[in-house]
Amino acid sequence: MTCFDRRDLGLLLLRLGTGGVLAAHGAQKLFGWFGGHGLEGTGQFMESVGYTPGKASATAAGLAETGGGALLALGLATPAAGATAAGAMAGAAAVHLPNGFFAQAGGYEYAATLGLAAAGLSVAGPGRLSLDHALGHVFDRGWMVPVALGVTAAATAVVVGARNCRVRLKEEGEQEALFEE
């Protein structure tokens, strides 16, 4: 008989909480559930904050959050699930960065917390109360952790970097227009 310890229970709770919140957050984007705006509304928002094309960006973010969150909650493919969710949250944090840290002022606190929890789960693993464990860790090998985090970090840097360039160019264009008036 297998005996589960505090670590396994703690990882289960962390996976369920973090994964559940991420999945719900992504479902708002993809399906408009839980008071979300769906792909159309989220796509328009994404365009307004520099992620273009908006609908494709909304789809990518929604899939990363919903899929990564659901997989984290299940404890399946934990390195990839955690890395994917962390990348999506890094993209969200970039939008909120100018507002400072705290969420009450529109800051990046919420996105950073979810992203760090997802990345931490990617590194720590799912524990024994998981599908990864039940399947013999086929999708949770040690080498997968740095690969998943590295690939996600590179992709996130490209996407966020391109977004930051678009935002900066837009701001510079607006400043030039003010001087011309």
From TrEMBL:
Superkingdom of the organism of origin: Bacteria
Topology in membrane: Multi-pass membrane protein
Keywords from the UniProt entry: Cell membrane, Membrane, Transmembrane, Transmembrane helix
Keyword Membrane: yes
Subcellular location(s) per record: Cell membrane
Gene Ontology CC, one term: plasma membrane
Residue ranges crossing the lipid bilayer per the database entry: 70-95, 107-123, 143-162
Keyword Cell membrane: yes
Any Pfam family the entry gives: DoxX
InterPro entries for this protein: DoxX (IPR032808), DoxX-like_oxidoreductase (IPR051907)
Family: Belongs to the DoxX family.
Protein's UniProt name: RpiR family transcriptional regulator
Organism of derivation: Streptomyces monashensis
